[in-house]
Amino acid sequence: MAESKATLSIDGNVVTDLPILKGTAGFDVIDIRTLGSKGYFTYDPGFLATASCESAITFIDGGKGVLQHRGYAIDDLAKKADYLEVCYILLNGDAPTKSQYDAFKKIITNHTMVHEKLAHFFQGFLPDAHPMAMVCAVVGALSSFYHSDLDIDDQAQRTRSAHRLIAKMPTIAAMAYKYSIGQPFVYPRNDLSYAENFLHMMFSVPAEEYKVSPTIASAMDRIFTLHADHEQNASTSTVRLAGSSGANPYACIAAGVASLWGPAHGGANEACLTMLEEIGTLDRVDEYVAKAKDKSDSFRLMGFGHRVYKNFDPRATVMRETCHEVLSELGIKDPLLDVAMALEKVALEDPYFIEKKLYPNVDFYSGIILKAIGIPTSMFTVIFAMSRTVGWISHWDEMLSQPGQKIGRPRQKYTGEIDRKFIPLKDR
Ligand code: SDX
Known about the structure:
Blueprint: E1 2-10, E2 13-21, E3 29-30, E4 58-61, E5 66-69, E6 72-73, H1 74-80, H2 83-92, H3 98-109, H4 131-141, H5 155-181, H6 194-203, H7 214-226, H8 234-243, H9 249-260, H10 268-279, H11 285-293, H12 314-329, H13 335-349, H14 351-355, H15 362-372, H16 380-401
Antiparallel strand pairs: 1-2, 2-3, 4-5, 5-6
């Protein structure tokens, strides 16, 4: 609903009026959809100031360090809800009643197994294949199991696709881990919670009973929640763009996995732990902060900075608290935590980081917790992808539910050659 307008004039000549549209919170948006008919495109590589869609799922206020899912604050959700309840909220819009939660949990639990043929896809990977490469490929392969009778215009079928993906991602993730260490795949168990089941599939072996630690399971569940969704980040935008053509949802989620893998995005948690291990000791922290500030050095402090948060990432705050809780409950003294705390302190007091508003993000502490609970570094981004699947598929479903949904098709500023005469090879 336009209540006010922007007037575009070029060199003093009015080109057009552009409606200003208001959401329920956050920035107003300038509706530029008619600009093409006036002979102009807007130019915004990296989408620094572009709203690509209308959404009611997640709200971020980067200046105030606010993150809400369907209006519920992330620290409330992380401390008072479990991940499956957060999945329900993201998918359906409101917190579930007890009976709605129980029904949802039962549905997800009963979709955790994968087709036996899916296991065969792993056999083509080299033993040292990165788990993200395996997850990306196998999630895409799910589209071959659910395609011919899939009607994505049918809400019930979209919902079933969402349930299948939320349920099967931990199974596939654990299979990737088991394959990488040469151990047999472990079937899910219906008597375990979502996080317990994942840990069971990751760490149990046929040779002996595996007891899931409640401390580790609850830390895992909180990490899932803290990574569940985050507005129109790169991987979510990838899923939306892929889905806007009507593509198979399992293939769209595979596209999201691919985008998340980059070190500038979800790959930062793995890169952050590798960086902390490279720094190694407190006396080397200053050296690395200096490297991060050195324009001639491409090194960046992984786990710092964010396109939207120009204040603390509220997830990092909860993650830091959880990090201390888990390490003390498990009686672990990890020198990397000392390095991380020192790095955070130095960086937050350094004018370079203050001026560029570079704060620890969600990836800064997650790696330390994951390492403490026994997750190998190569699986960190896989866990991020598992957690974010509910966000990706919620945005996919929201987009396809919106009337007048169009295929995403950005334009460009063309800087190449034009109207060249082509001379056939034989004459050149
Ligand atoms: C995630 O979008 C999301 O919501 C993502 C996410 C989600 O939940 O989906 O929150 C998850 O991806 C978190 C971000 C994880 N990535 C990292 O931790 C990698 C390190 N961070 C950076 O690469 C960077 O901060 C980004 C990618 C996160 C943000 O990049 P921007 O917004 O494009 O900012 P920029 O690269 O233009 O940097 C602005 C300035 C630059 O200096 P100048 O060119 O202005 O002189 O800040 C500097 C950068 O050099 N800078 C850093 C830095 N991050 C930015 N300098 C040192 N160390 C860093 N980490």
